[in-house]
Write a structure and sequence with these properties.
Largest sheet: 4 strands, mixed
Distance between the termini: 52 Å
Number of strands: 7
Shape: globular
Number of helices: 8
Strand content: 5-15%
Strand order of the largest sheet: 1-2-4-3
Helix content: 40-55%
Amino acid sequence: MNKDIYQEITNRIINSVDSAGKWSPPWKMVKPKMPVNAISNKRYSGTNVLMCWLTAMDKGYSSHRWATFKQWAEKKVSINKGEKGTPIIFFKAYEKINEQGEPDKILMARQSYVFNADQTDEKREEAPETPGIGGADSRNLPIDVFIYKTGAEIEVAGQRAYYQRVQDKIYMPPMPLFNGPEYYYGTLLHELVHWTGAEKRLDREKGKRFGDDAYAMEELVAEIGAAFMCAEFGIESTTRDDHASYIKHWLEVLQKDKKAIVSAASMAEKAVAFMQEKVGEQAMKEAA
């Protein structure tokens, strides 16, 4: 592979810093939908979600459906002239003989390109969007039920939102203190991703002071994980004002390690899967 897919993805994320120096993360989407393959309807995962979101944000695409040139051609759908594909990453398994003379499977990163349905001549009506949530004091029952079934301990008190690792407890200000319910739920889901990183759960490393690479990485994982969950529930992903101070450290981590964004997206996806598994287990207990 001539191009370095990790570096290309990292460069696209870093270049999302605008001329004013303020970062507009690719997961802050107006239309909170997870990108899917237009042929198989299978969701894209990890960094590929961020790449599709970033292109959709840049180009103003309304569709969340993507496919390769070959896949669109098999559907007899043509790519509009002059359109450029969005790079995504996939892993291909190869066999390699190890020192013991036994075959080992290794995964090698490969690059492909996908095109959004808006870049094609396909005539298709998109499914109706999931309605957003209303006023500043409104609750979202599906999210409330999901969070309750994770088993996380949450205390509504004070004016700061944070996960207290020693107490294994999330602290949240009351909803009316937020600009709207999407801000409240986006913040709570962010802290819930932190909760999954505890030693007795997914055991993610976390730095001890602000500015540590591990600390910045954990914040990036929580930010991406919350965006994935917001898309699941059909609410807009918001970037908290108090996270502006993290942006410099996120960029420093990405610039130092070209695989950092891929790792962060992978860990965020594992965090979401962990929560979904916990909710599923609780639902089975209640049904028994």
